[in-house]
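Lab notes, practical 5.
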Amino acid sequence: MKAAETPAPIRLAAAREVLDRGHGRPRLGGETDGAPEGLTVIVKRYGDITEEEKARAEEGEP
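Output from the prediction step:
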């Protein structure tokens, strides 16, 4: 994929194959596996975060 003499469309196809195998193919609109759609975002002010949440954040946990 990194070889300069390889045509760009071939390098792009190789990159797509690597991503599809590493991360799975992206879902097309409407395809679901029964999981709920959407994303829940919780916004907190820094002063409202508990000590436990601060410790988890420092450890890199969600």
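Observations recorded by the TA: The chain has a mean pLDDT of 77. The CA atoms of residues 46 and 54 lie 9 Å apart.
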